[in-house]
Inverse folding.
């Protein structure tokens, strides 16, 4: 995989998120964009608490969070669950689908988690970050998926990396990945029924 020099993870992800938002033509507040950058930078560090969000059944985690008596802990669990589902669907949506897990169901869990977190906050300035994340959850999953594709597309320098890009393209059909493949002489095409020609 190609190593890309960046001032910081946050700086790298800021560019990637900004580009993905423009590519997907997403109407997102500056706060939501910054939140996505922080989420991606957090998940890039192994062993961070955010990584624990997907280690147990998500419906159980949501139920536990909703019934947590301590408001601060309830909010934190809801936020972490929403983050985990957002990241997981964006980076590994094809993996979930291959396992027979409905992405709409997962996105519903993430929407519910962020929506419940939003209802716990009172914003005097009219902003509602978690409300925006809940309302546009599917759109933000697409933004994170675009960042994932951009990150994976950087790995075309080795044959193994090129194969990884090709395998992800087969699953997602991403234009960004197709472009990365084409720039290395691989012409990804599909027949009428999604079969490679």
């Amino acid at each position: 995989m190609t190593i890309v020099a960046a001032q910081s993870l946050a700086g790298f992800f800021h560019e990637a998120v900004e580009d993905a938002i423009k590519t997907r033509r997403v109407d997102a507040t500056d706060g939501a964009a910054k939140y996505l950058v922080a989420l991606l930078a957090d998940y890039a560090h192994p062993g961070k608490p955010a990584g624990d969000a997907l280690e147990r059944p998500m419906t159980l985690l949501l139920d536990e969070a909703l019934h947590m008596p301590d408001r601060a802990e309830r909010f934190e669990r809801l936020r972490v669950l929403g983050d985990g589902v957002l990241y997981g669907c964006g980076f590994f949506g094809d993996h979930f689908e291959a396992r027979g897990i409905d992405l709409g169901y997962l996105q519903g869990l993430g929407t519910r988690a962020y929506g419940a977190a939003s209802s716990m906050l009172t914003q005097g300035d009219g902003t509602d970050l978690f409300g925006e994340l809940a309302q546009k959850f599917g759109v933000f999953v697409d933004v994170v998926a675009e960042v994932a594709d951009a990150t994976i597309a950087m790995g075309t320098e080795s044959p193994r990396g090129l194969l990884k890009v090709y395998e992800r393209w087969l699953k997602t059909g991403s234009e960004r990945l197709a472009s990365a493949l084409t720039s290395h002489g691989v012409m990804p095409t599909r027949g009428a029924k999604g079969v490679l020609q």
